[in-house]
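Aggregate trends can hide what the representation actually does to any particular protein. In the encoding step, the backbone of a single protein was reduced to a row of integers, each denoting a local shape. The record that follows shows the chain in one-letter code together with its fold in token form.

***
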Amino acid sequence: MKTKFFQISDELFARLGKLVTETYGIKLPPEKKIMFQSRLQRRLHELQMDSFDQYASRLFDEQFAMEELSVIASYISTNKTEFFREKEHFDFLYDHIFPKIKEKSGGVFSTKTDIWSAGCSSGQEAYSIGIMLEEYKKSKGNSLEYGILATDISDRMLKVAKTAVYPMVQVSGIPIELKHRYFLKSKNPEDEKVRVVKEIRDRVRVAKLNLMDSFDTLATKFDIIFLRNTLIYFAAPVQLKVLEKVIDCLKTGGYLFIGHSESLINLTLPIRSVAPSVYIKTE
């Protein structure tokens, strides 16, 4: 039997788009209608809905909307991620930032380094950072106390991040020695999956956080913040608002990473560029 394809009217799309933008800051201009309509097909079938009108009638029910808006955000966000994506950033961490942290602590790591992976999707970014830290510790013979906070708005993505289980194909490009050190194969040879080792999983705290909300739940200021490939979803005024809040959570002298396709040109912020898409907080 042919699967039904649901259509959404321009008027209803505008209403739902406004709701998503107000809640998550994600811009949904008219040209995104086809994408929205296409990506939400599976969700309507999962809920056994007959139309976008029926879906909307429930979505504007506050109790249903609280969780469902998070689901919508997950479906319309690309959630494209991979281990060591934009590898130059991880090289910069290893070659330039970690040695400076070592200098500041008198030659050995003596204080905790706090890192935030904001918009972490399914967690590969956070675990890549953890692997780099462990590699640096091993190569320099240092002990290092660190913690990584990984946040996102998608419950679906956070569930993956918490389990840290990934298809084996996702680690195919990682050097063999790193795969052996930091990933465990499934005991079932037919289950082609790997899991990040407990040593790193224990350092990563996964939590839900909407960048449009207050950051009062963040109890610390961070040495390093990754906010990569997230700003592209926001309209310019929302980008600035989010950036101001994120930078406020960064220690003076701390580092901010954004995506290579993103730009902070013409924004007045207390940061300066130190490498492509890498900034240091100046005050």
